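Reproducibility note. Readers wishing to regenerate the assembly model reported in the main text can use the exact inputs given here. Chain order matters: entities are listed in the order in which they were concatenated for prediction.
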Amino acid sequence: MGPEDTRRNVAFADNTVGQEETEAVLAVLRSGWLSADREVRSFEEEFAAAAGAEDSVFVSSGTAALHLAVLALGLRPGDEVIMPSLSFVSAAEVCALHGITPVFADIVSEEDLTVSAADIERLLTPRTRAVVVMHYGGHAAGVEDVVALAERHGLRVIEDSAHAPLVRRPGGMLGTIGDIGCFSFFATKNLTTGEGGMVLARQPELLSQVRSMRSHSIDGSSRSRTASGSAGYDIASVGLNYRPTELAAAIGRVQLAKLHNDRVHRGRIVATYRRDLAHIPDLGVPFAGRTDEPAAHHLFPVLLPPGHDRERIRDRLRSAGVPTSVHYPPTHLMTYYRHGAPEADGLRDATAGREHLPHTEAVADRMLSLPLHAKLDTSDAAYVAVRLSEALAAEGAGA
Ligand SMILES: Cc1ncc(COP(=O)(O)O)c(C=O)c1O
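Running the prediction on these inputs yields the following structure tokens for the assembly.
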């Protein structure tokens, strides 16, 4: 019996929050001020420095970051924004909320699950104003090609870097190559603040607009108003309350310092998976060829051999102590985005008939995300690989 044979309970996702984060949060609690202030500013400065950017704006979620990006870029009702269907719904919903039409593009291939620049080109219309690129699972999308295309057509580029904090490319870190980069620090992300998001922008004016809109476009900070007892303020534009807390920033600063080591560890897990899954017949392992490219290794998706019942495989794995997930059910097949909402005729008209995405649809029912996080052991990954191989063999035999 090898170590992989003993029953384990593997967590699907986990974080590295521990004693240091606890102490940082306690210090904030004792400080007497919990809303955005000095910790937030320090986290922004540290994140920006690590990303090689001038500055950054910390907000309350990745969705808030994308929402502020759409608003700061001046996207308006009737505009179209091309984005991957194989992503979380945030980019689509922040557009749809404003009557901006999300137009869904295909992935490159079964090996590369990031959005295809060629498909983006196919979907351009005179109403296209912007493109969202998502670095799926922490692997770089072809953002340089998309930026070149955007320059030719006068479009703006948003990088949804929710999966890819501080991943280096020849042209800079992911999130700094397009016009605006948006990050998420949700509980399962590589760097977590519980909830939180970050915005980077190439143009300082864009970032200062994001900073202002994060807090109602009100002049001055709420802390200085509270401290001075000032009753007057002015509002020069629309905004929202997307401010983060000092507590989140305190966690983020510690998490940022841990990110590099956590990433190296995730890379070891990925290498183990790639080695141990390579022998399973007809199992697709996207991005397996990208051995030398920096990646955040946020997710580890596999493509089940065609014809398998994914839910039955998932049940078998669950019984063996291996939880799995799916990233993502394609957005263009979701009820709202498939038919358009009753109140959004523009959305229905603009999306109808443009929605056959052959590569995305070919992988949709075969995708399975395996456990991946910085607390996983390489022997856990070996265990998962054995259990997946067994589940496939059992299903194949029983089918
Ligand atoms: C690709 C992607 N975009 C956007 C988001 C939204 O981030 P948040 O959950 O912090 O709002 C997430 C995470 O959930 C995501 O995975």
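We highlight two features of this model. The chain has a mean pLDDT of 93. Residues 19-258 form a domain with the Aspartate Aminotransferase; domain 2 fold (CATH 3.40.640.10).
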